[in-house]
Amino acid sequence: MKIKINNKECSFNKGETIIQIADRNGIHIPRFCYHDKLSIAANCRMCLVEQVGINKPQPACSTPAMEDQEYFTKSELASNSQKNTMEFLLINHPLDCPVCDQGGMCELQDQALMHGRVKSRYEQEKRIVMDYKIGPLITTNMTRCIHCTRCVRFGEEIAGIKEFGAFGRGEGMEIRTYLKSAIDSPMSGNMIDICPVGALNAAPSHMKGRTWELEEVKHISSHDCVGSNMDLHVLDNSVFRVVPHENKKINEVWISDRDRFSYEAMEHTDRVKKPIAKINGRHVEVEWEQAFEIIYEKINKVKFNKSAGFVSANSTVEEQYLFQKWLREININNIDHRVSQNKFEYEDELIFPKIDINIEEIENIESVLLIDSNITYEQPILSHKIRKAYLKNAKINSIHSYSYNYNFDINNSFLVNPNQLAETLIDIVEYLTIITINDKSLKKFTIPDGIKKKFKGLSNKKIIEISNDILTKNSLIILGSNLKNHPDYAFFKILIDIISTLTKSNKAYLGNNSNEAGAYLTGCLPNKTEALRGIKNNGLNVYDSIIGNMECYIIYNLELIDFYYYSELKNSLEQAKFVLGFQNFITEEEKSYYDVILPLATIFESPGTFINIEGQWQSFVQACQPHHDSKEGWKILTKLRSIFGANVENSLDYIDILNEVDSSIRDYKPFENLEYKNIDIKNNSHNGSLIRSGGSSNYYIDNIVRRATSLNNVSLSKNSISVNRRTLEQNNIDMSKNKVLVKQGENSLLAELIIDENVSDDCIYIINSNKEHYDLGKQYEPIIIENV
Amino acid sequence: MMEDKIRINELCYSTLSSDKPNTFETYVDQGGYSTWKKIVSSSMSKKEIIELVLKSGLRGRGGAGFPTGRKWSFINQDSEDIKYLVCNADESEPGTCKDRDILRYNPHALIEGMLIASYAIGAEVAYCYLRGEFIDDVYSTFKTALYDAYDNKLIGKNILNSNINIELHDLIGAGAYIVGEETAMLESIEGKKGFPRFKPPFPAVKGLFGRPTIINNVETLASIPKIIENGPEWFNSVGTKDSPGFKCFSVSGHVNKPGNYEIPLGTPFKKLLDLAGGMKNGKKIKAVIPGGSSVPVVPGEIMLETNMDYESITKAGSLLGSGAVIIMDEDTNMVEVIHRIARFYYSESCGQCTPCREGTGWMYKIIDKILKGNGTLEDLKTLESIPNMISGSTICALGDAAAMPVESFIKNYKEEFLNYIKTQEEVVDNNYTNNKEFVMQQK
Amino acid sequence: MENMNSYNIPGEICNKINKWLLKFPSNEKKPAIIYGLHQIQKESKYIQSAHVDALAEFLNVEKIDVYEIAAFYSMFELDKVGKHTISVCTNVSCMLNGSDEILSYLEKKLKIKVGCSSDKFFLKDERECLAACAGAPMMQVNHKYYENLTKQKIDEIIRDLDDGR
Ligand SMILES: Cc1cc2nc3c(=O)[nH]c(=O)nc-3n(C[C@H](O)[C@H](O)[C@H](O)COP(=O)(O)O)c2cc1C
Ligand code: SF4
Ligand code: FES
Prior knowledge:
The structure holds 3 protein chains of 3 kinds.
Chain A: E1 2-5, E2 8-11, H1 18-24, E3 48-51, E4 58-59, E5 70-72, H2 76-91, H3 107-115, E6 138-140, H4 150-159, E7 164-167, E8 174-177, H5 190-194, E9 200-202, E10 215-220, E11 229-235, E12 238-244, H6 257-261, E13 276-279, E14 282-285, H7 288-299, E15 307-311, H8 317-329, E16 334-336, E17 354-355, E18 367-371, H9 375-378, H10 380-391, E19 395-400, E20 412-415, H11 421-435, H12 449-452, H13 461-472, E21 475-479, H14 489-503, E22 506-509, H15 516-521, E23 528-529, E24 533-534, H16 542-547, E25 552-556, H17 566-575, E26 578-583, H18 588-591, E27 596-599, E28 608-611, E29 617-620, H19 633-643, H20 654-665, E30 691-693, H21 709-714, E31 720-723, H22 725-730, E32 739-744, E33 747-755, E34 763-766, E35 784-787
Parallel strand pairs in A: 1-5, 15-16, 15-25, 18-19, 18-21, 19-20, 21-22, 25-26, 26-27, 30-34, 31-33
Antiparallel strand pairs in A: 1-2, 3-4, 3-5, 6-9, 7-8, 10-11, 11-12, 13-14, 13-27, 17-22, 23-24, 28-29, 31-34, 32-33, 32-35
Helix pairs in contact in A: 2-3, 8-19, 11-13, 11-14
Chain B: H1 24-29, H2 34-43, H3 46-56, H4 68-73, E1 84-89, H5 98-105, H6 107-121, E2 125-130, H7 138-151, E3 167-172, H8 182-189, E4 213-217, H9 218-230, H10 232-236, E5 246-253, E6 259-264, E7 267-268, H11 269-275, E8 285-289, E9 298-299, H12 300-304, E10 307-308, H13 310-315, E11 324-329, H14 334-348, H15 354-371, H16 377-390, H17 398-431, H18 436-442
Chain C: H1 11-21, H2 33-44, H3 49-59, H4 63-72, E1 84-88, H5 92-96, H6 99-110, E2 121-124, E3 139-141, E4 144-146, H7 151-164
Parallel strand pairs in C: 1-2
Antiparallel strand pairs in C: 1-3, 3-4
Helix pairs in contact in C: 1-2, 2-3, 3-4
The complex binds flavin mononucleotide, iron/sulfur cluster and FE2/S2 (inorganic) cluster.
C-alpha cells in the first residue's frame, strides 16, 4: 500500500500512522506527545499536517494511513497549524532557556525556532506551578511542563508503576505525583529523557553544565547482566550525565536508574588516590614504583600454593583474563570469582548467567516462571521485557520466598520457605514426569535416582497449574540472582535443567554482575582456565582458600563485604603474610586488612569489554582519563606480569589485549547446554528451625552503586527485620513491641520489627545491606528470634 | 404545516397531558411499551427497525444532528462481539434543559427507546449516564421508572419469555461538561477522567471497554418508540425535508414564559417566541443564541425571519445544536454575555489538548481585560484571531464550541467591544503603559 | 487535599459499591470509582487522602487513579466544606435573569464569598449550567433544585435550612 507525503511516494503496512511512515522516510514532522515507545495521546497537536481533500489539519501521530492518500507536512495549512500550536504552547511557558538544563537539546526550543512567531502576543500572567521534591534523582520545574503526558504514560505503560498523574483540568491541569510522594521506580530516570522540555531534570547534574559543552562517549552498563548501552556525557574529564544509547536488541531506549546515576561514585571520598602500602605498621601513600617493588619482594616470599586470588565479576574481560594469567604464570592456582557463592559441590555445573533466547525475544514468551527473583528491582530491563510479554497476555507465575513487588501481575504466586524451594521444584519434576510419560522425544531422558527418591505423591493445585503453564506454552524459567548464596543453588540449577528438558522450555540464570560470564570464560576459576579448558593442577575454590588460611591473598576490585564468608575472610586476612588489593575505593575499616592497595581506575576511566547474559561481547572505550593517580587495570596487570618475568612486549596496548583475549576464548561456544551428570543429590537446607533470608538493596549490589550518593538516598535500608504474623506467634513474640532481638551463633542484633505477610513462614527477612547487619551472620543459616 | 395552531408536545413530552406524567401506568395507558412488546414477540427484525428510523429522518438531538438510523447502521451486525448502547443524559450545554424534563416527566419513553435501540444494534447491555448534578433530582425519578420496567419484565433476562436479554443500567457522573462529549463519556463510564478520545477509531467500531458502542442523546432515544409505533410517515408529516419531525426547544432568557416546547421543526422562530410569552417587559429583541451556548449568536432581526430547522438556522449563520434558544433583549450587554460564555469553556476545557487548554484561557483573559476597561485594539485583534487558531485543530469539538461564540460575538457586536476600548482610552495613562502605542494610533 | 490518617469504608457503602460493580464486566473495577467517591463524600462531606487510599484498596486500583478522578470532577470537594452546599448557576440563561444579584444577595446573607465555606454553608463557585435554564435564576441546595428564585424565596430556603439544622 502506498501514500504520498510531500509528493514523495511512501509504502506502508496496514495500521501505520502518518508520522511512522514519515519517520521511516526521513520526512520530519514536529511532535511533542508522540513517542514511538508509548501509546498515542494525540494531545499536543504539534504534528498537524494537511491531508489533501480535507480542510481540517490532521494529527499525523494518530491518523492511520489509507491507500492513495496524499499529505503535505509543510503546506500553508500544515505550517499555520503548527505555528498556532507553538504559540499556544509558549503562552504559559516561562521561556527561561538560558537557565534550563534542557537548553540546547530541547525539543520545544528547536520547534520554537522553526515554527514559532517571533514575538509573543500573550501579555497576561503566565501560569506558575509550584515544585516540590520528588526524590533525589529528578528535580522538577513544572512551570515549564507542556502537558504532553509522556511521563504519565511512561509510568503506566513502561515502568508499570504510575507515579505521575495529570490532576485537575483545563489550564489548571498539573502533572504531579499523588500526595507529593517521591518517585521510586527503578527506571524513573527515563522520564527525564522523554520529557521534551526542561520540566524533569536529572537532579545530580541539575544546573551544572550546558549541553553544548559536553562530549558524548558510548558505554556499557555495569550493574546487571544485561549490558544496557548508554552514552556518557563527559565534562572536564568527569562523567556529567548518563543517558540511554538506543540498542533495539537490548535496552531499546531505556536504562535503569542504577545505570544512569552510578557515575556519581567516581568522586566519592573513598576513592583510592595513590598506591598505599603498610610500612612499619602504618598505611602511607607511596609511588607506583615503590608499590611494585614491595609487591615483588613480598609475593616472592610466600608459598604459591598457599596463595589465592579473587577477582570481581564486574571487572572487564581484559582484566579478568590478565589477572588469572598473571597468577597462573607465577603458579598461583587458587583463583576464583564466585565470592558470593555458598557451596561448591557440583564444580562441573557451571552456573554463569545465561539465557536460552535473546533478550529481545522475551516479550514474545507466553509464560514465565520466576524462581525467587526480585526481577523488577534487580534487573529492570529484563523486567520491562517481561512486562511487555505480560501486556501481550503472557502468564507470569512465581515461586518465591518473599512476595516481591513486580511491575506486572502474577497469575499464580507460590510463597515458600527457602528451605522448601528444592522440594517445590521436585514436586514440579514429579508432576511433569507423569504428564510427559508418553512423550517419545524424552525416551532417552532419565531422572537421577536421587531426585526420584524424593517423589512423594501428587502435589498442590497451584503447583499443577504452574507446571501446566510451563508445559503447554512457549515459556521461560528464570532463576533469580538472589539465590546465588543459597546452599542449594547448584541443585536448583539441576532441577531447572530437568524441568526445562521435560517441558522444552527456555531458561535463564540471572546474575547481579556485569561480567560474570566473562569471569567464567576467561578462567577465573580454580579448575578451569581460558575458554573453560581443564587444567592439571586444580586450585582451591574461594571457600577452601578462605578457610585454608593462605599466606597471601590478592583481591581485585572486591570489597570484603562482597564475600559470603565475610567473617572467615577477615580472620584469614588478619593472619596472612601479605594482602594485596586492586581497588577503586577503600573504607578505613577495610584498609586495615591490606598490605598494599593499588588505585584502580573505575569502569568510566578504562576501556573494556563485558559479556552479557546472552553471551554478547560489548566493548567500550575510555570515557575519562583515570582520576588522581589511579591506573587502568589492564595496564597494572600487564606491568606486574612483566615485573614477574613474563615475556610481555613493552608497546602492548589495550587493543592487543582485547585481541589476545578474543583469540584465546573465541572458539568456545559458551552457551550450549551442558549435559548434567547423574549426581548424588545433597540437599543442604537446614531443616526444622527458623532461617534467615533477605537480599540486598538494589543500590548496594557493588562497590560503585554503594557510593552513588543520590541513588543511596532513594531508599535507605533501615535496621529492621520482617517476619510474618504466624511465625511471630509460633515463636511467642510480643507483637505490641516494636523491637526484637535476633541471634545467629554468638552474634546478636537488636532491630525494629516489621510484621510483613510477604515473608514466608519460619523465615526472618533481613536486608543485608545495612551496616549494622554485617556482623550478624549469614543468609540461609539458622537464626533465633526473641523478645527484648 | 398548520399555520395557526402549532402541534405541541406530541412526542417526548406527550405524558405532560396527564396529572402523573412519569408513572408506568400513565405511560402504558397512552400506549407505551406496545412497540417494545411487539418487537419482543418477534414481529420485527433488527433491520426493519433500523430501516424505519432511517426513513423517519430522525437526527441526533444531542447537538451534532447526525442521522440516527445511519449511526446505528455503522454497527457490524455480523460480529459476535459484545456491543453496548449508551444514553447521553449528561445534559450540560448552557441553555439546554430539555432532557431533564424528559427524565422527569416521561422516563419510560426513554427506557423503551433504549430497549428498542439496544435490540436494533444487538446490544445486551445499555447504560444511561446522567450528569452528576441530577443525583438528588431526576436521577431518582429515572431509577423508579427503571425498577418499574424491570418489575414488569420488560427489561432483563428472557424478556417476556422471548429469549431476548437486555440489561439497562443507570449511571451517574460527577460534574464535568466535557463528559457530554461522547468519547469522554465512555472514558468516564470506564472510571477515568473525561478525556475525549481521538477518532478514528469511532465508538461504533471501538467504544466502551473496547467494544462497538452507539451513543445517543436522551431526546433522540425517547423519540424512537413513537416513531416506530406511528411510523416514519407520521413523523415526517411535520418538519421540513432535511429536518423532519418534532424537536424540543428550551427557551430561556428575556421571555415571559421560558420553558421547554416540543414543536415541529421548521416552525418560525416568531411562533416559538409567542409560545414563550413574547419578550419580557415588552422590550425589543436584540439577539438569539439558537442552539446552546456553543453556537454562533444571531441578531434578533435575522432570527425573527428564520424558521427553527437545521437548514434555516444554518443559513442564518448559526446551528440548531441542542435546541437551546437563549433570547436577549435590547438592554443586554454583549461583552458581558460572551465574557460569561468564555469563562464557562475556560473552566470546562478538559486540559488534554493544547489549542483548547491554552486558547480558552487566553480568550477569556482578553475578554476579561476588555470588560474591565483595560483592553486595547491590539487585544481585540488578537482575540479575533484566536478562534480560528483553535477551530479544527482539537481532539474534540469543545475547541470549536469555545471558538464559535467568540468569533460571532465580535463579528456581530464589534462596536460594543470597541466601546469598552474607547472608554478605556480616557483612563489609559495610569495603568497601561504598553498601550501608549495604540492610543497614539487612535488619535 | 487534607491528609487524614486512616479510614475504613463503612460496610454499608462497601455493599453498595459491590452492587454497583455488577453493572460492569467482572474484571472492571475502575467504573465504581466515581460512585464510591460520591458515597464517601455523602457521608464525609469532602474527600481526604485516606478516603482515596481506602477506596483504591477496596477496588484494587491505583491510588493515583482515584485521586485523578477526585481532582477532575467538579462535584468532588477536596477541601473542608460546610454542611450545606449551595450552587447558584451563573451561566448565560441565569445571568440574563439576574443570577449575579442572587449570588451577591446570598454572599451577604451567608457572610461568605462565592467559592468559600463557613461551618454551615458552602457557596460553591458554580460555573457550569445546571440544566434548569427555563427556571432561571436557579440554584441547587444539597443537589436539590430551586428555580425562579427571588430574594424572598431565598430567605425562606435559608430559614428552612437553619431550622432543619
Ligand atoms: C463538548 C461537548 C459537549 C457535549 N455535551 C452533550 C450533552 O450534554 N448531551 C448530549 O446529548 N450530547 C452532548 N454532546 C454531543 C455528543 O458528543 C454526541 O454527539 C451525542 O450524544 C450523540 O447523540 P445523538 O446522535 O443522539 O445526538 C456534546 C458534544 C461535545 C463536543
Ligand atoms: S478540545 Fe478541549 S475538551 Fe476537547 S479534548 Fe481538547 S482540551 Fe479536552
Ligand atoms: S505528536 Fe501528534 S498530537 Fe502530539
